[in-house]
Structure formats: structure tokens, C-alpha cells
Specification:
Blueprint (H helix, E strand, L loop, with lengths): L2 H25 L4 H21 L2 H15 L6 H8 L8 E4 L6 E5 L1 H19 L10 H17 L5 H25 L3 H28 L5 H6 L11 E2 L2 E2 L8 H18 L6 H17 L3 H16 L4 H19 L5 H7 L8 H20 L12 H4 L13 H32 L8 H19 L9 H28 L5
Antiparallel strand pairs: 1-2, 3-4
Length: 503
């Protein structure tokens, strides 16, 4: 049997286990019909992807299935989230029919964006209750970021390619943010979307555990069968073990996705009636996070949990207990089988691949030197500078494993200020919003804590990785959720002020 068919059988089996386990707790949060419809769409599209033997055939069939499927969908963002990690986002160029080299590149994520988020964009624009774009500070900062990015492309490429890049900015940046920030207006809609993301991540987590234990990357054969070229999805090890990547193509990306799901789960788990199912869901995500052997997402997940606890009831006491548990865990690990290996893998104190830390330190130092030469708007030839050339690795590449650095190198301190300012404005807005609630157990407050914690973890994790694979679409979406939350709280406060009897 061909490898991709064997992989399909395994992925289907693992996914069905997760969906079967999740059926009852999911229906504590959303209608059963929504759960089953999305699950069936996920399974159908997966089979089509593996059996099509062509990305173009898969794209055509997926377009038909999703056009029909979205007609019954109440929450387009939830549909987008649950399908986001279905297959790797490897791309192909759409031919230019002899007029230009090619029209634009298409991958699974961009296909979902065009089929789900674009129709949602037009629908939301027509709705009377939708906040017009440009009314919030994040809207303004994102607009400036997009405009600056588009203009800076002109200095390094042709007009045709700049137009192509503008299309990507619209599909890959604007649409995820816009739909996430405008589609969710009620608490149950947040639960719906965040559960969809968490479910998709749980499937990835179980696949990651399988890949780690069996030393088999399940999606690598799909890339070849579909005729795609992708520089990712390579076999990478650490400490003698395979680093799982699932459909994300890279272990650190998988870890990043699961850490975001952990942030969402901190909010969702309280709505699940069964304590056992709550704990099993958390255990699955943690085990999946471990299977990546990616220290950046580990630290990001730790920050997510810390921020969530620090913004809740008895914050000081609980944070101190968390810190104490972390300190006591180290000597405990040293006396249990396999514990020393885990200690060696830990960031800051571990001994495995310390050269990665040195590389990141040198990258930061050299990048600062390059940025100082073109501080305002960056440069197009930063990779050819002596400082960057000295960072070439054994694979012959310069791996700028820091999203903030690459933003500053490409678009200068102005670009970095717009990029960072966008997220900071949202974080401050979330914090100010949930601080208005007096009851620490309020469900809306808990949602704000989870979103702030998740955003903090994302912003920390991207200091350890560039914006590859699904990383950017996730952080633009998380940012959009933050804006939607701020607006929901504002509307809630306005409603209570207008109708005080409802308090």
C-alpha cells in the first residue's frame, strides 16, 4: 500500500478518536448539529486531499464541498478554524496564461480564506450591527501596517508582483483579522469559534504524539503525491527523538498552534460538565505540545497559564504556588525514569542544542547592527550584509528565527512600531475591558483573561520563530478575537447603562 494511503488511514483513525472523545464535551458548549456537520466536513475534505493526487483537483472538489457546506454555517470563523490545519499549507502557482509569469500562489489556507472568509467579509459589511472598519485604534494601525508593507514592496520588485503582494496582504492579513473582529458579537459565538480551534489542535496533538512515538511524519508523503514543492515537513530530531510537526510542516509551528489552543482551553474547559473530560482534554494538549520538543512554545504556553492565573482570583497566591510547583518539579524529574532527558530539553537549564541559543543571540546582535544602517524603513538587501552572511547555517540558509527582527529588517522601526503597536493596543484594550467586571467568576471576564493570556503567549513565542506556515494567520486571528471581545464588552456596558434593570 502506498505510504500516503497508510498515512490517511492512521490520520483518520486518530482524528475519529479525538472527535469521538470530544462529542459529549463539545455539545456542552455548542449545538450537536454544528459539531457533527464540521466533523463530517473535516473528514470529507481530508479524504479528498489524500485521494485526489492533485492539489488542483483537491481545490476544485473542496470549493464545491465548502460552497455547499457553508450555507448552513452560522459562524464562518468556527468553520475556518476547524479546517485550518487539515493539510499542510504548501502552495502552487496559478499560471499567468502567457501574459505574466503567474497570477498568484494558492495553498490550503488561502483557499479557505477565499471560500469562507471572503464571503463572510461581504456578508458582515452588509449587516447593520457590524462595526465599520477604521473605528478602532487596532484598525488604524493595521491599515498603516498594510499600506506601508505594500509601498515597501515597490522598491524591491515589479509593479505586477507588488499587486500580487497586495492581494496576499488582503487575503492573509486583513481577512482573518476582519472576520475574527466582526463576526463574533455574543459569548456563545466566542465559545463556538474557540472550540473549533481547540478541536482542530487536539487532532494535531494526537497526530503529534503518534509521530513522536512512531518516528513517522504522516503528512510528508501527501506533499509529494499532490505535486507540491515545500521546503518544510522535514524530519527533525532533538535529543535522539523525532520532533512532531503534523500538518504544520515544522515542529515549532505545531507547538505554537497547540499553545494557542491551550490558551483557548483555559476558557472553554469550565463549560464542560465532566471533570474527567476536562482533564483528558488538557492532558492531550500538553502531551501534544511536548511531542514537538519546541522550547519556544513551551515557554509561550507557560506564560499563557501564568497570565491567566495572574489575572484571576487570589492571583498572587496562585502564581506563587505555580512557581513553587515549577521549582519542585526539577528535582522530582531527576529521580524518575526519563526525567533527566526532559530536563536536558528544557529551555535555559537544558544542555541539548545549546548552540541554538548562541545562534539566536548572535542573530539579535548582528540584526541590530544592520537595522541601525536603515533604521526608519529597513532595506531590501539586508540578507547580503556581512553581518547576515556570517549567520549562514549548514543548510546554506540564514534563519531569522524572530518575527520582530525580520519586521524591523524589512520595514524598519516604523514598521516594527506599527506591528507591535497593533498588538499592544489590543492587549491593553482587553485588559481594560475585563477589569470593568467586579465578579471574578464572571464568564465574560474569564474570556478576556484567556484572550489576553493567549495573546501574550503568541507575542512571546514569535520571538523564537519567523512568520512561517500558519503562524501569521493565527496571530492575526487571535488579534481579531481580542478586538471582538473589546467591542462586545463595550456593547454590554452600553446596554446595561441604557437598561439598568438588566444588571
Amino acid at each position: 500500500m502506498p505510504e500516503h494511503l497508510r498515512a490517511l488511514i492512521v490520520i483518520l483513525a486518530l482524528a475519529c478518536i479525538v472527535f469521538a472523545f470530544a462529542r459529549r464535551p463539545a455539545t456542552d458548549l455548542i449545538p450537536y448539529s454544528d459539531f457533527t456537520r464540521r466533523r463530517n466536513l473535516w473528514l470529507t475534505l481530508l479524504v479528498l486531499a489524500f485521494l485526489s493526487h492533485s492539489f488542483w483537483l483537491y481545490a476544485a472538489l473542496a470549493s464545491i464541498v465548502l460552497t455547499i457546506g457553508r450555507q448552513r454555517e452560522r459562524n464562518p470563523l468556527a468553520l475556518f478554524f476547524i479546517l485550518l490545519f487539515l493539510i499542510p499549507p504548501a502552495s502552487l502557482q496559478i499560471p499567468g496564461l502567457g501574459l505574466i509569469n503567474y497570477l498568484f500562489t494558492l495553498d490550503h489556507v488561502r483557499l479557505l480564506t477565499l471560500l469562507i472568509l471572503l464571503p463572510a467579509f461581504f456578508m458582515l459589511r452588509k449587516q447593520a450591527g457590524t462595526l465599520p472598519f477604521g473605528r478602532t485604534w487596532p484598525d488604524k494601525l493595521l491599515t498603516l501596517h498594510i499600506v506601508l508593507s505594500a509601498l515597501l514592496h515597490l522598491r524591491e520588485t515589479t509593479l505586477t508582483d507588488t499587486l500580487r503582494q497586495m492581494l496576499y496582504l488582503f487575503t492573509d492579513v486583513f481577512l482573518p483579522y476582519y472576520v475574527a473582529s466582526r463576526a463574533l458579537k455574543q459569548l456563545n459565538e466566542f465559545k463556538d469559534a474557540m472550540l473549533a480551534f481547540a478541536l482542530a489542535a487536539m487532532v494535531l496533538a494526537l497526530i503529534g504524539i503518534f509521530e513522536y512515538s512512531r518516528h513517522w511524519l504522516l503528512y510528508s508523503s501527501l506533499i509529494d503525491v499532490m505535486g507540491l514543492n515545500w521546503g518544510m515537513s522535514n524530519y527533525l530530531g532533538r535529543g535522539g527523538s523525532l520532533r512532531a510537526s503534523a500538518s504544520t510542516g515544522q515542529a515549532i509551528v505545531l507547538g505554537y498552534v497547540i499553545s494557542v489552543a491551550i490558551g483557548f482551553y483555559l476558557f472553554l474547559h469550565a463549560g464542560v460538565r465532566s471533570r474527567l473530560q476536562q482533564r483528558l482534554g488538557a492532558l492531550l494538549l500538553v502531551a501534544g505540545l511536548f511531542s514537538t520538543l519546541s522550547r519556544g512554545p513551551w515557554v509561550g504556553a507557560a506564560l499563557i497559564i501564568t497570565v491567566f492565573i495572574a489575572t484571576g482570583r487570589n492571583a498572587v497566591k496562585r502564581v506563587m504556588l505555580l512557581g513553587l510547583a515549577g521549582v519542585l518539579a526539577i528535582p522530582l524529574l531527576s529521580i524518575i525514569p526519563g526525567g533527566n532527558k526532559l530536563i536536558d530539553l528544557l529551555p535555559y537549564i537544558g544542555t541539548i542544542e545549546k548552540g541554538n541559543i548562541t545562534y539566536r543571540e548572535d542573530l539579535f546582535t548582528n540584526s541590530i547592527i544592520v537595522i541601525k544602517r536603515n533604521p526608519l524603513l529597513g532595506s531590501i538587501d539586508f540578507l547580503s550584509t556581512p553581518e547576515m552572511q556570517s549567520m549562514i547555517q549548514g543548510e546554506g540558509i540564514i534563519d531569522i528565527v524572530n518575527t520582530y527582527l525580520i519586521v524591523a529588517l524589512k520595514s524598519g522601526l516604523i514598521g516594527l512600531a506599527l506591528f507591535a503597536g497593533f498588538f499592544i493596543a489590543i492587549a491593553l484594550g482587553i485588559y481594560k475591558s475585563f477589569r470593568t467586571f467586579q465578579d471574578k467568576d464572571d464568564e465574560t471576564l474569564r474570556l478576556g483573561r484567556a484572550l489576553l493570556a493567549t495573546l501574550a503567549g503568541v507575542l512571546l513565542t514569535i520571538t523564537t520563530v519567523s512568520s512561517i506556515s500558519v503562524i501569521p494567520v493565527v496571530y492575526w486571528s487571535v488579534a481579531g478575537l481580542g478586538v471582538a471581545y473589546i467591542q462586545m464588552v463595550r456593547n454590554l456596558r452600553s446596554s446595561r447603562a441604557t437598561h439598568p434593570a438588566t444588571r
